[in-house]
Amino acid sequence: MSRVVVTGRIPDDGLEILRTAGEVWSWEHDEPIPVDVRNEQLADADAAVTLLTDRVDDAFLDAAPRLKVVANVAVGYNNIDVAACHARGVAVTNTPGVLTDATADLAMALTLMVTRRLGEGERLIRSGQPWKWSMFMMLGAGLQGRQLGIVGMGAIGEAFAARARAFGMRVVYHNRRAVDAETEARLDARLVGLHELLETSDVVSLNCPYSDATHHLVDEAALDRMRPDAYVINTARGPIVDEAALVEALRDGGIAGAGLDVFEHEPDVHPGLLELDNAVLVPHLGSATVETRSAMARLAARNAVEVLAGRPAVNPVA
Ligand code: DGY
User: Fold this and answer.
1) Given ligand 1 and candidates 92, 285, 287, which is best to mutate, with the most ligand atoms within 8 Å of its CB?
2) Which CATH architecture describes the domain 2-98+290-308?
3) What confidence tens digit (pLDDT) does each residue in 72-90 have?
């Protein structure tokens, strides 16, 4: 009989699947699990189901000598020291696929919000200030005929590209390798170098994983390459953007705006961003639909169950 520790609240259908593997203990609160409680529970755990707010490092693994699998309820796994897990024979899994549409929807929503100044408009109405329609009030930028530059053409990048095409945008992308010819043709997307993407795109969307290689990929130099009427959208991970440099670029007119779902020091947000009308800020809601969070929990649970049964994980992280 296996013991599974779930380090935070997840939807019940995930817990039900986990119960087929054995005894399940879960932290049933929204605030983070205290380290001493976590370590006590991990002492005889065979599987840990983790959230992106958990740091799975040597300290975590030291507390869990029996662990066979860490099943992260997220597609991103930068919160996990994968090498340290593998060195101890602990499998790592994630939840790709099931959050693709929700995250691409959010990227599209942020793009519309920032280009059409919807956050500003909402704040104006809620402020109670008098307003009336006028020809030049809060003019934004249309998307038709504009270029979307996608950095990281995985499943989410492709899904966002498809949405942007429906809004009349053309697509270029930067990726380690070209996507298959059928996808390029379907999206009418062209592979370009990062510099060309930054210099020619009206909207630059970050859809790549976070790693040492993508830390501060959008820094002062990258922002300098962008056009003053261009926008940055980040639904990937906060530290891909140098937030201080972004604040300067937004403040000085280096770029037109930014739509951010993720932050460099999450949950803290650079105070400069809070003052800027051309920044749309939402609290890491990319996968936050009822259906998606349930699907993520179920997939993470299936991953844990498979490994505990001695079978290959559905979504192993290599
Ligand atoms: C993920 O799965 O990595 C997302 O950031 C969760 O919303």
Assistant:
1) 287
2) 3-Layer(aba) Sandwich (3.40)
3) 999 999 999 999 999 999 9
